[in-house]
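Troubleshooting log. The previous run stalled partway through. Resubmitting the same two chains, unchanged.
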Amino acid sequence: MKKFALDFKVVGNKRLNTRHFVLELQAPVPLPEILPGQFVQVLVHNSPSTFLRRPFSIHFVDYAKNTLKLLVQTKGEGTRHMGMLKTGDNLNMVYPLGNSFSVPSSGKVLLAGGGAGVAPLMFMGDFLNRKNIRPDFLVGFRSADEVSQIDEYSKFGKVFLCTDDGSMGEKGFVTQHPLFRQNPLPYDRIYCCGPDAMMHAVAKLAAEKGVPCEVSLENYMACGYGVCLCCITQTDKGNERVCVEGPVFDASRLKWQSNG
Amino acid sequence: MADLNINIAGMQFKNPVTTASGCFGYGEEFKDFYDPGLLGGIFVKAVTGSNREGNKYPRMAETPSGMLNSVGLQNKGVDNFCKVIYPKIKDFNAQIIVNVSGSTIEEYVKVAERINELEGIPAIELNISCPNVKEGGMAFGVVPATATEVTRAVRDVYKKVLMVKLSPNVTSITEIAKAVVDGGADVLTLINTLLGMAINAETQRPVISTVTGGLSGPAIKPVALRMVWQVFKAVKIPIVGIGGIMNAAAAIEFMLAGSSMIQVGTANFIDPMAAPKIVEGISEYLDRHNIASARDIIGALKVC
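Second attempt completed without errors. Output:
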């Protein structure tokens, strides 16, 4: 899949809550085909402390508007700067990068995610709908004040919700949700993205219950296109690059040693 | 338009811009962005005697105006390079130079002998400066006697152009440079990364798995320029300058300090188009200053 490095124009910057916002970015040339699970490398600005690009999963693609969306969690100077971007500003991105979630032709699908890790699941939901699959979403947030975009997810499938503090939906982590207590699990596939500990826990549960599971890793990266070899994860084939062989991996192939 | 051609050690380069080992893969990864044939040369990722998995994750820390890495020479070994990678890159319209690494002198020699057989590879760059491996690597490059020894051992078996990449983690860069020249090097590359460290105050842990790693990026450029300048005055063989070159101005600075060619390293991670932009920028600079050839600025620093 051909990669590009171009300036996008900010056409929207919507704050979801104190920590999260969604940037909508318009491409200067028609977007190529982008697959759910792929990511972009964002060049924040020329500051000594934001020297490298930042990787973000693609949250949504709108080919009609020629835009893509990024769901961003404010963590450091780079993401703070991105949060201040205004309509009309430019943002340089390298795209589309990495592999993608596998796409089943039929069956029951669960899309599980937590925090800003839910980002690629919206795009995956839309993609599955186009293949006539209506997935279930299981999304976890820290607390009620961070719960967002439930109406958006609901367009593509049924949404199950949990919060760490129980202020909305089920209390606890996604793996503690009653959905996972069912035997057998009523799903043919699980796709997961979120903090490493969460993905590891979901992968373990999926393996116990015999359901194939794919996870999208978010390792630290320098380049994002396979040359620096910094973002590796240990798999059954040795050290593989998260930016090229991933970010999506069949969870059963991962050793998890390097990812918590 | 100014003449960008550079000839060093009998090798012809169409311009002085090359990409650094470990920062450009095998060149193929950049084909989406531009034709690697636009470059003077490509220094491909380090090749060792056999497969190396490299160090544990995390291997990278972003630091002010730079980054720290501890990849640890991950590569599939010289057999795989010769059989799988070489056929894919040998026809690039740029000089392809292989970075040769090892843990022992025997390993360096074995890899050099194999690469010597490859018709499309006119030179090797001996890596005696990797700070991220337990054995070999930088250990050879920080002591003059072993630097001479490993260079000479490879010189004995390698018949083409022998470049040696020096470590900046030494008290006297000129002493090491002279030692490598004594061993029979044709060209010197400097500098490799500076040994550094990053700590996360919140977790009270080192950021990378190996605790220490190699610092690169503009943060190290002043050190690199100083070393190129000192070595330029101390030895007679050509220098390939590297260390935080992000743009044409930095490339020109390295040439003024005495580099015949330059390598673009970390910049490839931030702007995939960095290297061809630098080629254009050098050409524009020479025209603007009415300088006929890129060769005219090598070591042309005006020191009163």
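Takeaways: The mean pLDDT of chain B is 96. Chain B touches chain A at residues 22-25, 29-30, 32-33, 45, 53-54, 56-67, 69, 71, 74, 217, 266, 268-273 (CB under 8 Å).
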